[in-house]
Design a protein that fits this description.
Blueprint lengths: L2 H8 L5 E4 L2 E4 L11 E15 L2 H4 L8 H5 L2 H9 L3 E11 L2 E3 L4 E2 L6 E7 L5 H4 L2 E9 L16 E11 L7 H8 L1 H11 L3 H13 L5 H13 L3 H16 L8 H17 L3 H11 L7 H9 L10 H14 L1
Parallel strand pairs: 7-9
Antiparallel strand pairs: 1-2, 3-4, 3-5, 3-8, 4-7, 5-6, 8-9
Helix pairs in contact: 7-8, 8-9, 9-10, 9-11, 10-11, 11-12
């Protein structure tokens, strides 16, 4: 856990202006616009955790928190008690949360690292740190107010947390759990690591038929077929990954392998001389050229794309790459 997490925890209060009994928040990037709020189920990995001590965080001796000191003893205790909880740093590894507003987005926050508030009536940092938990997320504070967590540098509250396992266990992902229990999958992994791709493909294919293949297994199956120069067989497992990515049905901790799988799919489409399907994937990288700079450069140099280098689709793609990267 980085030290900046604790610095942020102690300096979490910013942008608050008090007028009489009312609290107004100066807008900042930490707060969403009121027309766009997120809520729904998420699975997160807890990378940092700090137990809040409201008496220290909201130091009533400072002018901007003077209103707390002006409360009577009972009122002051009630206010501070609403902020007794955990300030957690999480990565959202799976989201079915919905961002509602002008546009409705499903899978909101997936892959993002954020700070969130969690009530601590039964929760302690020791039980949450390094764990993967399922919970409900709610976004608040776009219009100010004193309700928790609106005085913290976050608008997100986690409710009903349930520990699923450790952050590195693949907990919560049933496809990964089935794969871990699969003898065929284990055989495939061993063969794949030994670069025995024919054996790996046979084992992964058996696991796939039994419904025991996760995203990593699909990639390994596709990669094995490519290494055997059988791109026609590689396409179905790689397309499974690509389709899941388009539907945002990929866990955040599998995004790297899914990204590799999608690029390998473009290579295999080229190898079977399907420039339209190959370049459709390559063109998607042009929407975020800096993020996909590596893929764009490889698309110009990888020998697999030699099969379509004379096609109009690929020639047009090359021209666009030149514009984007120069």
């Amino acid at each position: 856990m980085d030290a900046s997490f604790f610095r942020r925890g102690n300096q979490a209060i910013r942008g608050a202006v008090f007028t009489g009994a009312f609290l107004y928040m100066i807008p900042s990037s930490a707060y969403a616009e009121c027309m766009s709020l997120v809520s729904g189920p998420v699975i997160v990995d807890v990378a940092g955790c700090k137990m809040l001590e409201p008496e220290k965080v909201f130091d009533a001796s400072k002018s901007k928190y003077k209103f707390i000191g002006d409360l009577d003893a009972a009122g002051r205790k009630d206010f501070l008690d609403t902020y007794r909880g955990l300030f957690v740093k999480v990565k959202v590894v799976k989201s079915k949360a919905v961002q509602k507003g002008l546009n409705v987005e499903e899978g909101a926050l997936n892959g993002q690292t954020l700070y969130m508030y969690m009530a601590s009536s039964q929760n302690q940092c020791s039980a949450m740190l390094g764990k993967r938990i399922s919970a409900q997320v709610n976004e608040r504070c776009c219009d100010g107010g004193g309700d928790v967590p609106c005085l913290l540098d976050t608008g997100f509250v986690l409710k009903d947390p349930k520990v699923l396992g450790s952050t590195s266990s693949g907990a919560g992902d049933e496809s990964r759990q089935r794969a871990l229990r699969s003898a065929s999958y284990k055989t495939g992994i061993a063969a794949f690591r030994a670069k025995k791709y024919k054996d790996a493909a046979a084992a992964f294919s058996k696991a796939k038929a039994a419904g025991e293949l996760d995203v990593k297994g699909h990639y390994s199956l596709g990669f094995s077929y490519r290494e055997m120069d059988q791109c026609g067989d590689a396409i179905p497992p790689l397309k499974y990954i690509h389709d899941a990515s388009l539907k945002k049905d990929i866990w955040a901790d599998e995004e790297d392998i899914a990204r590799k799988g999608t690029f390998l799919l473009a290579r295999c489409y080229s190898k079977i001389n399907d420039p339209g399907a190959s370049v459709m994937i390559l063109n998607s990288y042009l929407l975020e050229p800096q993020k996909y700079k590596s893929e764009l450069k490889q698309a110009l140099s990888n020998k697999d794309f030699g099969w379509i280098h004379t096609s109009k689709e690929y020639r047009d793609f090359k021209k666009e790459v030149g514009k984007k990267l120069n």
